[in-house]
Known about the structure:
Layout: E1 4-9, H1 13-24, E2 28-34, E3 52-57, H2 65-69, H3 71-74, E4 78-84, E5 87-88, H4 89-98, E6 100-105, H5 110-121, E7 124-126, H6 130-148, H7 158-168, H8 173-180, H9 184-198, H10 203-212, E8 218-219, E9 239-241
Helix pairs in contact: 6-7, 7-9, 7-10, 8-9
Amino acid sequence: MSKVHVALLGRNALVREGLRHILSRESFEVVESADNPAELMHPAPEGSDDTLIVLVDQSAQKYEDDEVFAIRNENENARFVFLTEQLNLEYMTQAFRLGAHGFILKSVGCESLLGSLRLVALGEKVLPGALAEKLPSISSASSVMVSKESSLDTPLSDRETEILSCLVIGLPNKLIARRLDLSEATVKVHVKGILRKLGVQNRTQAAIYALNNGFDSTFRTSSQDYSPVVHGDMDGVGAMNEHQMA
């Protein structure tokens, strides 16, 4: 199996060197390491279809989205994965909308990190498992938000508030269906009902509406080691096919 190319982007050189050491033990090859996105803006070799995973350490002194995703202008095969210390739903939603392939908490173990990157290399998208722990509280916040929103002629049902909380964190219908033990067709019906009741045109607008009307979009995690969401055949890794992130 050919090695997957990885570019490391982060302010902390020590962290980058640690990541290089971890990745070098597996089927990854760190081809570049930099603290400035501009240093990674090199065209892919002509005729190359090799995937380049750009692993971004978004801790202190976060990078602006436009400077990170500008790397894709030079290398269309780049896939962006962000390492973060906390869950910020609003930021994650925006990043996925711009083309991110995953978020990984810095508290995960090495095997979870490597498993997530392998899935990204296969075209999947990954989310932290901590989001699964937070879904009930997100749903409760959604219910409070909807009850206070006087402009709604018809309030959202309990099931619709659950699905709205899933829309906020960017889950596609297929993953929502599995998470809530529903058919995908049923989820689609509920999503249409949510859009109609909120008076918005698409799921992104629904998520923004929710965040602007009562959601606390930032969830800090404890020191507990959270792995990505369990989904599919690989334990400890949550994945979404890139074509499902509409």
